[in-house]
Every structure is written in C-alpha cells, then in structure tokens.
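Postdoc handover notes: sequence design on the structure in folder B. Input tokens:
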C-alpha cells in the first residue's frame, strides 16, 4: 500500500472514530445515580444496603447488574423503579431529579418512564392477554393531557403483541400459556407505554433453559432496535449478554468496563 493510500485509510478511520464518539456524546442520559446510599434503620441496628452508588445509563444501553445474595440488588432495583427512595445522594431520570418526589409523583413518573419485567410475570389470570397488555395504558389515561382513543389503545397493544410474536394468543388467559409465553406477554406489557427504560428483575428465574434463552434473545433484539435495558440477574451467562456489566458487592457498585468502583 502506497503512502497516499495509507494516509487516506487513516483519515477514513479517524473520521469513523470521530463519528462514533460524537454519537456516543449525543446519547441522552436516561438514568443517573449520583452517590446514592440506602440505609435501613431499626432500634437495634443500621443496615447499609447501598453505599455511594454512581450509575449512568444512556439511551440504547443494555446494562446488567449482578452480585451475590444480600449485595443490594433488590434495594437498587426498588430505587431505580421509584418504589423506594434514597437515603442520600441524587437520582435523575432524563435529567429530572426524582430523589425527593412524593408517592403520587413517583407513581406518575413510573407509569410514564419505566417498564417493569418481573421474574414471576405478575400477569392477571382473570384478564385476557390483550387486557393485561392494555392495563398500563388505562392507568396512564389518568395523567395524560391528551387521552388515547380506543383505536389508539388497540393499535399499541397489537404492535406490542406483534413485537413479541404473540398476536395469535391475544384472547387467551395467562394460565393457558407456558412460562416462556407469559414472559413474552409481560415484555409486551412493559413496552406498551413506550417507556424510557426497561427494568428487568431476573427475567429467566422461573423458566427452563430453553425458554430462558429465547427470552434473552428477544431482549437482545429489542435492545438492537433501540430499547434501553437495565437487568438484574444472578446468572453470569445472561449478565454477559449485556453490552455493559456492573457488579454489586456489599452495596458498592463496580463496573466491568474498568473493574473499578463506578464514578
């Protein structure tokens, strides 16, 4: 390769790197924790569940959080999902400080910005698959400035059913489905309000390996399409599927990108 060709190749590579760097800088921060701690107090003792945790999840990220039992994963997930509050530090969702909101304000933000996927599916057996997925939309109607029409709700549910390849089961009840199918419906329900992020708690915990792998493949596909994901798991195989792995130990967050405490 001559000198001119080498210089052109280097210029092209530098331009590609600059484009990638600029795109990364432009990615919006979805979740940011700044020195967040959680302390549980009783008359006898003081338990530090989280110790100065820093975490920044940007739009399109796929982050896994793992660690041993009792390391603070459940406490962290409860705070991220606005089910609990911080003892100290700050928590931002899309730049808005949500650290000190009251219970109703947290519920509103949670409904608009966060999609949950649980280990136990948490579907309602008395409702059809379609109605389970539509339920968050009916709750969100109470806080929307512009109400959704029946047709708009129907379209959103159908889109989510198609996304998880379960359109043919829309009239079934959850107890008529396999575990893997129920988790697909739970994913569709989490997506129906177009949340800023999916918070996922042990998504394969109640599934056999075949169904677990299928669900994880679906999550990877959703992320490739732009869905932002934060997943808590104890399974190292699935944790490694995330593009970024974080590890909790005694309430302290470590980031696998550098093996150091997150800053």
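Designed sequence:
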């Amino acid at each position: 390769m001559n000198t001119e060709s080498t210089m052109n190749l280097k210029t092209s590579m530098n331009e590609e790197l600059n484009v990638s760097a600029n795109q990364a800088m432009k990615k919006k921060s979805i979740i940011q924790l700044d020195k967040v701690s959680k302390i549980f107090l009783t008359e006898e003792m003081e338990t530090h569940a989280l110790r100065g945790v820093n975490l920044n999840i940007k739009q399109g990220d796929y982050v896994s959080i793992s660690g041993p039992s009792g390391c603070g994963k459940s406490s962290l997930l409860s705070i991220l999902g606005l089910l609990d509050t911080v003892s100290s530090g700050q928590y931002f969702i899309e730049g808005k400080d949500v650290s000190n909101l009251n219970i109703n304000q947290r519920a509103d933000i949670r409904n608009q910005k966060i999609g949950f996927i649980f280990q136990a599916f948490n579907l309602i057996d008395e409702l059809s698959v379609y109605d389970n997925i539509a339920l968050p939309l009916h709750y969100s109607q109470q806080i929307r400035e512009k109400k959704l029409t029946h047709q708009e709700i129907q379209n959103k549910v159908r889109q989510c059913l198609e996304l998880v390849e379960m359109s043919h089961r829309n009239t079934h009840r959850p107890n008529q489905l396999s575990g893997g199918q129920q988790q697909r419906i739970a994913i569709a329900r989490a997506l129906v309000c177009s949340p800023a992020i999916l918070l996922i708690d042990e998504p394969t915990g109640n599934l056999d390996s075949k169904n677990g792998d299928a669900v994880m493949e679906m999550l990877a596909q959703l992320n490739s399409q732009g869905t932002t994901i934060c997943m808590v798991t104890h399974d190292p195989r699935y944790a490694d599927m995330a593009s970024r792995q974080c590890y909790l130990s005694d309430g302290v967050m470590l980031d696998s990108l550098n093996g150091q405490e997150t800053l």
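Context for whoever picks this up: The chain has eight helices and eleven strands. Don't rerun without checking with the PI first.
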